[in-house]
Write the structure tokens for this entry.
Amino acid sequence: MVANLFDRLLLAASFAHVLLTLGLLIRLGFLRVAAVRTRQVSIRDVALSSDGYPEHALKVGKSFSNQFEIPMLFYFGVAVLLIFGNVTLWHVVLAWAFVALRYLHAGIHITTNNVNQRFAVYLVGVIVLTGLMLSIYLPILFGLGG
């Protein structure tokens, strides 16, 4: 059971990412239904591929799909931390930074889709996630402090 403050804050960060993912899914649903209702696309055109949807729906769809890529490492790390029960303030800070960067990445993706900005945010997120993963696994594997 999640017992202490750091455990709860870590779990809250993962839940914040779940909310981002669900928000994108709901937005995507509205956009796709609207595209079919307004006849911007026919169901037959998108039965096998979503590529026929209007650009904004495509951006939201790609952003939604992105939430099942690199964030899976984040969720696995959170699970390992909660199982081993050694969550520190550093883990919490890195987890929240990663989630904030995922929100920023998604925001760029579904609005301007500026690839340079999006990649920069993605890269910083990967660096933060790498720091989080190292701070999780090194102490467990090598008995280091933490």
Q: What stands out?
A: The chain has a mean pLDDT of 94.
